[in-house]
Amino acid sequence: QVQLVQSGAEVKKPGASVKVSCKASGYTFTSYGISWVRQAPGQGLEWMGWISAYNGNTNYAQKLQGRVTMTTDTSTSTAYMELRSLRSDDTAVYYCARDGNSPTQPRLIDYWGQGTLVTVSS
Amino acid sequence: DIQMTQSPSTLSASVGDRVTITCRASQSISSWLAWYQQKPGKAPKLLIYKASSLESGVPSRFSGSGSGTEFTLTISSLQPDDFATYYCQQYNSYWRTFGQGTKVEIK
Description:
The complex is a heterodimer.
Chain A: E1 3-6, E2 10-12, E3 18-25, E4 33-39, E5 46-52, E6 58-60, E7 68-73, E8 78-83, E9 92-99, E10 116-120
Parallel strand pairs in A: 2-10
Antiparallel strand pairs in A: 1-3, 3-8, 4-5, 4-9, 5-6, 7-8, 9-10
Chain B: E1 4-7, E2 10-13, E3 19-25, E4 33-38, E5 45-49, E6 53-54, E7 62-67, E8 70-75, E9 85-90, E10 97-98, E11 102-106
Parallel strand pairs in B: 2-11
Antiparallel strand pairs in B: 1-3, 3-8, 4-5, 4-9, 5-6, 7-8, 9-10, 9-11
C-alpha cells in the first residue's frame, strides 16, 4: 500500500531554515511527483509546489519563490522540502502528497503523508 | 492563479440529511477538480477526482458533478463519520489552488 512517512516536528527561530523529509513506499517513486501542501493553525490548505521524482523538475507557488527548494533522492525514495528565512506566519503543518508526473496532463494529488508541524517562534 | 470559492463555509446538518457543497472557479477548469475530506488532526483524504469520479474505497453516498466553473459535492445521506471539513481543489493549472473549506457540523 502507498505510504508517505514524514519527519518529526520542528521548532525554529525566525530567520532560520527547516528541511522536512517524506519517505515513500508501496509504489514506483520515479513514476510520480510529490507536492507539498501546508496548513496554518485553524486555516485551510495551501499548495506550496511540486517536484517530479522522475527528473527533478519543479513548480513553486509564486509567494514562496526564492525561499523554498524541493528535492528528491531516488536511491531512498525520499522527497525533501526546505524553507528558508522562516517567519512566524510559516508556522503550519506541512504535508507531502503523491502527485502526478506528466509534463503535459493535469496532475492529481491522491495520497498524503501524516504531516509535520513546524513552529516558528523566538 | 485560479481562485476557488466554496460555499457555505459552515454547514449544520443531521444524520441522514442530504448535503450539497458548492465550489466555483474563477475561470474554466474543465473537469479538473478534486474533493478532499479532512478530519481534525489528520491528513486530507481524496474522495472525488475529475469532478465526478469516485476514488476507490469511498462510499457511494458521495458524488460530484459539474464542469467549467461550477461544481458540487453531494452526500446523499449524511453519516456520523462524515462530519469533517471538505476542500475542493483545481488541478487544471500546474499551480494548484484549494477552496477555503466547508466544515460540516452536527446540527
